[in-house]
Amino acid sequence: xNYVNYIDFRVLGILLSLMTVMAGLxxxxxFDMIGSSLLKRTKNTMQLSLVLVFLCFxxxxxxxxxxxxxxxxxxxxxxxxxxxxxxxxxxxxxxQTLAANLGSMLTPIGNPQNLYLYNLxxxxxxxxxGIIGPYTLEENNSDHEIExxxxxxxxxxxxxxxxxxxxxxMSLLVVxxxxxxxxxxxxxxxxxxIMDRQVLKTVDYSLILTFIAFFIFTGxxxxxETIRNVLQEFVSGREVGVGIAASQVISNVPAALLLSGFTxxxxxxxxxxx
Length: 274
What we know:
Blueprint: H1 2-6, H2 9-27, H3 30-39, H4 45-63, H5 65-82, H6 89-105, H7 112-120, H8 125-138, H9 141-175, H10 181-196, H11 205-223, H12 225-235, H13 239-250, H14 252-259, H15 266-273
């Protein structure tokens, strides 16, 4: 029973809802369509590179840095090769990676550790952005038939994407504490199961299992007074430094989950793990 009490079901519900919606939007090509539309407006290599980088930066604020990179790095490679700009591949991809991480820092839904700490600290959106914002800124017939089929598929994708965007807005209402998490989760799961159930197979459930494991681990450690006191003393006042160091070793999501059990200064920990 104690193990169940350690688990933050609100965070898991929001995270799973958002991951499912993002998987659906990605599968239906919304991000590729937006990227292609923007690229048509570029006039030179510099503009092309900037668009490819800023796609990662802005989208990562809402679809997480992982999804942003999985979507736009292959897109950038394809685009640059079409333009015979292979020499730009490595520089652009490196800057895309930096941009995705900087952009994802800025919002609670940009990455899992932000969502977790935002929820844990019961922050206001303005407070969250105030803490992390400065760090983000610093840094023929048959052809006709084929075309008809393509249009039909595109129309279906647009319809699905419209539904996914509504589900995304519902998830955002949960993040800002307007809607209960379980209502959004049930609506998202039932809608996707009926409309596009293949998407449910593409969600990264291992991240949810990671959260559950760390909730239980941290809860158990917190029950052992000696260890709890030592860790609290070690982390207290050093949240930024310890957060940075732990993120390099065990990555930022586990670091946030682990260290949050031994400090109340979530603002500094938020900076450290990002």
